Amino acid sequence: MQYGYNLNVSKGLIIILQSLFSGDPTTIIMNILASIVVVFTALPIHEVAHGYIANKLGDPTAKNMGRLNLNPFTHFDPIGTTALLLFGFGWAKPVPVNPYYFKNRKNGMAITALAGPASNILLATACMAIGKVLVNFVPYSQFTMILVQVLNIIISINVTLAAFNLIPIPPLDGSKIVAIFMPMHVYARVENWFARYQQYFLYGLMGILFILPRLGGPFAAIGNIIYIPLKLLQNLIFFIMNFLTGFIDIIAKII
Q: What SS3 string covers 104-164?
């Protein structure tokens, strides 16, 4: 039996919210478990990946500050973590990075920024592989059904977290990744400008995501600046993940 993971992410997140108020105890437990797993895996892994790669590239700042551990409370941000659980995208307390430790400041920042979303994609791919194995090779039971549904939610949120961070708008990781294509003299100016005003960029981003859609009309359309590239990136990531785990489907067909 084939298992399709092309789950519409927004639909999956809506299911989370709806089921929290559902009278079905199994559904409530399933979503609570998924939410706990996400908080204890997706956010810490994302931030540790940033710090680990930065350390490998010569910046020991995160290591010296005790941020290279998977303790979720080390990376907890009240607003960002709540947004992740409710809306499927959010943030943890940023891992400190000092680009002046890197041999090449621009390349070092780009690689360090890419590490976070890449870690979430790898985690989602591992969950997809486990889900396909459960569906194709493990006898059906209530437990396996719940586990597969929990994996689906974990996959959806990790993919959304990765795609959201890859959008090239400061202060998201994507803005640091695309900066690699800038000439160094331009990059230096932009880097200083972003560092000075990135807090305001974050406020503006939250306004586009959470406030303007509620106003309706032309204001809601502005949200497409985020949601269109977000959806495109989600679809691309799901395509890559399905390709990487496709060998499980092939083995299932042969058997």
A: CHHHHHHHHHHHHHHHHHHHHHHHHHHHHHHHHHCCCCHHHHHHHHHHHHHHHHHHHHHHH
Separation in Å, CA 128 to CA 32, 62, 102, 245: 19, 30, 35, 7
Contact 179, 109 (CB under 8 A): yes
Q: Is 11 exposed, middle or buried (0-12, 13-18, 19+ CB in 10 A)?
A: exposed
Active site residue ranges: 47
Residue 210 CA to residue 86 CA, distance in Å, equals 11
**Distance separating alpha carbons of residues 229 and 82, to the nearest angstrom:** 23
Q: Which residues of the chain register pLDDT less than 70?
A: 1-33, 35, 84-90
Distance between start and end Cα atoms, the chain: 11
pLDDT per position as a tens digit, 52-84: 999 999 999 999 999 999 888 888 888 777 776
C-alpha torsion 185→190→191→195, nearest 10: 150
Report the alpha-carbon angle 228-232-233, nearest 5: 115
What is the tens place of the pLDDT at every residue in 124-139?
999 999 999 999 999 9
Exposure string (b/e) for 222-245, b if CB count within 10 Å is 16 or more? ebeebeebbbebbeebbeebbeeb
